[in-house]
Design a protein that fits this description.
The protein is 9% helix and 71% strand. By secondary structure, the protein is mainly beta. It is elongated.
Length: 202
């Protein structure tokens, strides 16, 4: 029974593939810039992904993105770090017409950030000898700024939604994602937008 079900699914997907001129060797290469930011830093980066179309509407693949971030505030912690995301993705496509379509990705990623942090949130409370107006000893602390290494690792989820355009032969195209969210451990979130050039091989 299981073998029959698997065979049916494979034949069903193969029908879509042949209809969309997709062979087992077909591969989409996507790469381009991204800009955005976490709550405390602005990011500029570059992404690269490989997507294997299964049908004209569905694909799976892998992605990698590198970026650099600089703190966007003056009176708080200054974060300066580089980030790296690697993961797997599910790609969805919905053709509209004239080569245009809606495109979305759901990504399951491993995310790293490495750099430095300094500012008022990173403090070292140190007890000092202090007295009140009557000369009685009181508990008091002095606060010092701290410059330290910054390191963050997390599994995360990322999704985006955008519009795509392809040439008539679907060999080349562009994808623009105005909506792109990354959620990492501890509720950390990043919003970004990106532009990808697309090339199809085989």
């Amino acid at each position: 029974m299981k073998i029959k079900l698997i065979s049916f699914v494979l034949v069903f997907l193969a029908t879509f593939a042949s209809a969309g001129e997709i062979s087992w060797k077909t591969l989409d290469i996507k790469t381009g810039p991204a800009v955005g930011g976490w709550q405390y830093a602005e990011m500029i980066g570059w992404s690269f992904s490989l997507v294997k179309p299964i049908t004209p509407y569905l694909g799976v693949g892998a992605m990698i993105e590198v970026g650099t971030d600089i703190s966007a505030c003056e009176d708080c912690v200054d974060y300066d770090f580089n980030e790296l995301s690697e993961g797997l993705l599910v790609n969805l496509n919905a053709p509209i017409g004239l080569g245009f379509g809606l495109v979305g990705n759901f990504m399951f990623i491993a995310h790293w950030q490495d750099g430095t942090a300094s500012g008022y949130y990173y403090v070292k409370p140190a007890p000092i000898e202090a007295f009140d107006a009557d000369g009685n000893s009181i508990l008091a602390y002095t606060m010092e700024e701290d410059d330290s290494d910054y390191d963050f690792e997390s599994l995360g989820f990322r999704s985006n939604l955008g519009i795509s355009w392809r040439t008539s032969g679907k060999r080349f195209g562009l994808e623009f994602y105005p909506v792109d969210f990354t959620i990492a451990r501890g509720g950390r979130a990043r919003y970004s937008c990106s532009l990808n050039a697309v090339a199809r091989i085989f």
